Structure formats: C-alpha cells, structure tokens
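re the bet — no i am not wrong, look at it urself. input seq straight from the record:
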Amino acid sequence: MKHYLELAIGWIVALRSDPRQSQRGLSQSTEVAILLAAALTVAAAIVVAVKAFVSKKLSGF
C-alpha cells in the first residue's frame, strides 16, 4: 500500500513540475481540483484498507 501512495505522490510531483503543463491550458483552479480529488481518493482507499484490516483482525477474537 505504501508503494502505491509513493507512486501517486511521485506522479503528482512529476505532473506539477512538467514544463509542458502550463502550455496545456489548465487553469490553476482546475489543477487544484484534480489534485484534491486524487488526494481524497488516496485517503479513502487508505481508510477502507485500514478498516478492512482491523475488521479482519477483530473477527478472530
């Protein structure tokens, strides 16, 4: 799971530092909205994974 988070962060950093990014015409607010949606998706995936892990461990008692 940590690997996927690091990969997602790497993609975000790479896309933000891409010199062609400013030439594509995305506005700053659109870029922020996309990054926020990606961050929320990653956070939701982490919450679901932790909840499933804890539920699995607690069902054994």
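see?? The first helix runs from residue 2 to 16. told u. also DSSP finds two helices and no strands in the chain. so pay up
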